[in-house]
Design brief:
Length: 51
C-alpha cells in the first residue's frame, strides 16, 4: 500500500508516474480489488493477475 499511496499522491498533484500497465498480484482478493480501484481512479492502467 505505500507504493499505491505514492502513485495516488503523484496523480493527485498532477504529476502521475509514466508507467505502463501495473499488474496487481495478491492472495488477498479484497486488498487486490482496492488497489485496482484506487489506481484506476487516478488514470493508471491496471490489471489484476490471478493465481
Amino acid at each position: 500500500m505505500p507504493v499505491v499511496a505514492l502513485l495516488e499522491e503523484a496523480a493527485f498533484n498532477g504529476h502521475p508516474f509514466q508507467v505502463g500497465t501495473i499488474f496487481v498480484h495478491s492472495a488477498n482478493p479484497i486488498g487486490a480489488e482496492t488497489v485496482v480501484r484506487v489506481l484506476t481512479r487516478w488514470g493508471y492502467r491496471v490489471r489484476r493477475a490471478t493465481a
